[in-house]
Design brief:
With 336 residues, this protein is mainly α. The chain has two domains: 183 residues, Farnesyl Diphosphate Synthase (Orthogonal Bundle); 139 residues, Orthogonal Bundle (Farnesyl Diphosphate Synthase), CATH 1.10.600. It is 73% helix and 3% strand. The protein contains 16 helices and four strands. The protein has a two-stranded antiparallel sheet. A two-stranded antiparallel ribbon has the order 3-4. Strand 1 and strand 2 form a beta hairpin. Helix 1 crosses helix 3 and helix 1 packs across helix 4. The longest helix has 28 residues. Its cofactor is Mg(2+). It comes from Streptomyces antimicrobicus. Pfam families: polyprenyl_synt. InterPro entries: Isoprenoid_synthase_dom_sf, Polyprenyl_synt, Polyprenyl_synt_CS.
């Protein structure tokens, strides 16, 4: 048994392990090649986050979905490079919007070179992804364009906030479906489609990816509140300190508006105040961890992961299906 990919996914089949590891190695080489430029500075900036590492969650899903057809088909690795390049490009842009100083344990591109270079580097990665897509055919271009539109729409909706009368939780879930779920869904779709899998299988895996991607993001929301730094690899309360209203906070606001309890309203005020002070942040974390809103956010996460798992039921039993089920279990475990 070998552990590969995010969450310590265990692969118990030698053939699947070989295929997945070979695919991910090829993707890594493809990412380095795609981020090279004749201008050394552009290469340095474009490879900054590639070399910082990452889970390679989306390429892993491409490789697993490809097991339902021909896993050696020529379009599989390039399509995995496309989705990871797109993901990386969004990180450059996100860090500018969030004024982030650190990404994946290294200095963010915007902190190192400034916002203009970070934005333009993200654009460069989008351009390189489009160049690879052109060789994969018009259907692949259309699918990626639709996903990118959803991703950008999600980002804009997040920035704009919910319209008057819109449930903030529903708005947030729509935002996350666009920002995260869309590209994870495309990862599964590309893997199955490029492998020549049956259209019904492609559709099932696309829907699976959408729900798994959303569960993955919601698990991060829970971890930001519930975990310690050793467990999660990031400082607890990072989103709270930056004033990002993640799902536990939205569930708290929902409860405060519904029930009007003084302690809930007081916690909302604390979270909406200045949390740059370590003592205030620690108090906010302690109180939110003890609040039912956190458990509600966990249940929301588990629901999407279970929905993803249920979608896999019609697929033939195989080691790739077992691995996809295990990813659902891993998301639940992270949020547990």
């Amino acid at each position: 048994m070998t552990v590969v990919g995010p969450f310590g996914l265990s692969v118990r089949d030698q053939a699947l392990e070989t295929d997945v590891q070979a695919g991910l190695t090829a993707v890594e080489a493809g990412l380095l090649e795609a981020t090279k430029s004749e201008v050394p500075f552009i290469t340095e900036a474009a490879q900054h986050l590639v070399k910082a590492g990452g889970k390679r969650f989306r390429p892993l899903l491409v490789m697993l979905a490809a097991q339902f057809g021909d896993p050696y088909a020529p379009g599989i690795v390039p399509s995995a490079v496309v989705v990871e390049l797109t993901h990386l490009a969004t990180l450059y842009h996100d860090d500018v919007m969030d004024e982030a100083d650190v990404r994946r344990g290294v200095e963010s591109a915007n902190a190192r070179w400034g916002n203009s270079v970070a934005v333009l580097t993200g654009d460069f990665l989008f351009a390189r992804a489009s160049h690879i897509l052109a060789d994969l055919g018009p259907e692949a271009v259309r699918i990626q364009a639709e996903a990118f539109e959803r991703l950008v729409t999600g980002q804009i909706l997040e920035t704009a906030g919910p319209r008057d009368g819109r449930d903030p939780v529903e708005h947030y879930l729509d935002v996350m479906a666009g920002k995260t779920g869309s590209l994870v869904a495309v990862s599964c779709r590309f893997g199955a489609m490029m492998s020549g899998a049956d259209e019904r299988v492609v559709d099932i895996l696309t829907q699976y990816g959408e729900r798994l991607g959303l569960a993955f993001q919601l698990a991060d929301d829970v971890l930001d509140v519930a975990s310690d730094a050793h467990e999660s690899g990031k400082t607890p309360g990072t989103d709270l300190r930056e004033g990002i209203a993640t799902l536990p906070v939205l569930r708290l606001r929902e409860a405060a508006a519904r029930d009007g309890r003084a302690e809930d309203l007081d916690l909302v005020r604390l979270l909406e105040g200045d949390l740059t002070d370590d003592a205030r942040l620690a108090e906010a974390l302690t109180r939110l961890r003890a609040h039912p809103a956190l458990e509600q956010a966990r249940r929301d996460t588990v629901r999407y992961a279970e929905d993803a798992r249920a979608l896999l039921a019609p697929l033939p039993d195989c080691t790739a299906k077992a691995a996809l089920v295990e990813l659902c279990d891993a998301v639940v475990h992270r949020a547990g």
